[in-house]
Amino acid sequence: TYDGINRLRAANAAGVTGQANLGDVTYTYDKIGNLKSIKRHILENNAVQQQNYNYVYQPNTNRLLKVESGANSYTYDENGNMVSDTKKNLNNTIYGRANLPSRLDMGTDTVTYIYDANDMRIYKKVDSVDTILKEEYYLRDATGRELAVIDNNYNINWYIYGKERVASMQHEMPVGLEKLFITSDIPDGTHYAAESIQTDGSVQSDATLEAGDRVSMLPGFNAPADADFKADIKKPDGIPNFIYYLYDHLGNTRVTYSVEIKATNQIDYTVESASDYYPYGKALRSYGKERYQSTYHERDLESGFDYRGARFYDADVGRFNSLDPNASDYASWSDYSYVLCNPVNLIDPNGRDPKPFKIYLTDYTSDRVSLNMSLIKDYVYEIFTKNEIAVDISIISPVEAYEKDLGWGEYGVGIIDGVTSASMSESRPRPDNTFNLAYRDEDEDAIKPVQYVNYEWVTRTFSDSAPTYVTSYEVSHEILHQMLIQAVAYNDWITFEDITTALTGDEANPSAVYGHYEDEPNLNQSAETMDKLKNMPKGRSSRLRPQERVSDAKNHRCLILHFQSQISSDNYFLGREERPDNP
Phi/psi at 374 (nearest 5 deg)? Predict the structure, then answer.
């Protein structure tokens, strides 16, 4: 259930037999999106109980003072970064560059982070009373994705990506430092003196040393001077252990599993972990362990916080620990709120906000039409911004439009005049659901747009509206078509039938209308209906009017925002196939 500005108010988990309310949750908010309360049904002592969180804020701020019933109390530094949390036994946090934490003091444990020049975490250490409990090193690609995590026991987890992280490969080092074992029986062969053997003293059945490797004794391993040791020298079997990921639509890790091929017709599947989640990312119930949990992000075992790039997130209370670096873009929202309070449809890939969609506008009109392209650009920007869809708009020439190769999240419209076009406006995707901006007409030796709006046709149809505004409105309409086409193509769990209403009757007609719907006045109504109802806005307005709305009747805006979040997270702005000469 949602309120009037798409904030999640209640979610019903459907439950299981004997636990009917398990997972059900309700939320309340203040005016700018700070959570005021959470009531969720949890499983405790094998019984379903209601957990109540009531939020108390420091006066005249968005900083959390305490969560009643959750037994949490908090303090913040002068920059608005959370430094202590009593429930998590977090006594103090030291922040460094870009307001990223460099040290967490948690009881007797200390957690240390190091970041690279791009503010991506590359090192983590946990120690207690001068004893190192764990060290981890992160190997990342140019986009910041984890390619591998190496710990201080020389265990390596490699990560394999498609559109998202699809598998991990546990790599066994040639030298198994902890796998040497002790034996009292010394067989024939080469023997090593005690001081040349590295081991933590654990008794294992296998050793994985390669011939020629140099080994040494670890501090803390005690043995009599005349003790005998044995190391079997052999090659690793070379078969890595793969773990595969299954996600929900948000990128929450729901299941990880491994596969063992025992014979030609015998394949064993083993579930390594499984999790259900509350809407804001807190685990409802879990089996096994998995590093990456909510929306593809790592949940640190030491603190329970999600590392999300620019900030850390606390799924237990549903808010970030520090200010949004892009808070000025969301002036009407709390600096700590998560995804505009809409966590079932949106994700935050990097702790900031989704990468804006790129829009290109081109003037193809003749000299007899005097277009104010700068004003059209401003109007289009306002329409999408009022719908909370981030866009970056550029005006380019026909030659630039012809030479530009668009990828996912990139759109464009050319404005033409005359009556030669077959319709008022049109958007036509390529087979891979990206878009050409222009093609060359060899017969006329001219560059023409593929996606277009006909200025004369639009202004004639809506003659009582301001020409520049109504042209901007129709440009926004076509861009919305393009966004919906890609959003549906990207999310294979949605079909055009889910988002499309035919112009007449109830049967969906995706090939004809690409997401038109006529349920109420909105930005994606067809021109025929807009003309018939005469409800086109007459000019510019600072407020979002019904005709300018990306209607929520079929959750179009949520679908687009979710798509935008996903491609930002996946770095899915990739090069596409060569542009055809003629569309």
Answer: -65, -40
Would you put residue 34 in left (φ > 0), alpha (ψ -120 to 50) or beta? beta
- The DSSP 8-state label assigned to residue 19 in this structure reads B
Do residues 215 and 175 touch, judged by C-beta distance below 8 A?
yes
What are the strands of the beta sheet with 357-363, ordered from one edge?
Answer: 391-395, 357-363, 410-416, 452-454, 425-426
pLDDT greater at residue 493 or residue 162: 162
* Tokens 């392209």, residue located: 373
Candidates 278, 254, 287, 253; CA nearest to 42 is 278
Complete DSSP assignment for 45-96: TTEEEEEEEEEEE-TTSS-EEEEETTTEEEEE-TTS-EEEETTTTEEEEEE-
Give the tens place of pLDDT for each residue, 461-513. 888 889 999 999 999 999 998 998 888 877 766 665 655 554 344 454 444 44
Q: Render pLDDT for 96-123 as a digit per residue (tens, 0 to 9).
A: 989 999 999 999 999 999 999 889 999 9
Q: Give the separation between CA 74 and CA 320, rounded to whole angstroms.
A: 13
**C-alpha to C-alpha distance for 412 and 396, rounded to whole angstroms:** 10
Tokens of 21: 């309310």
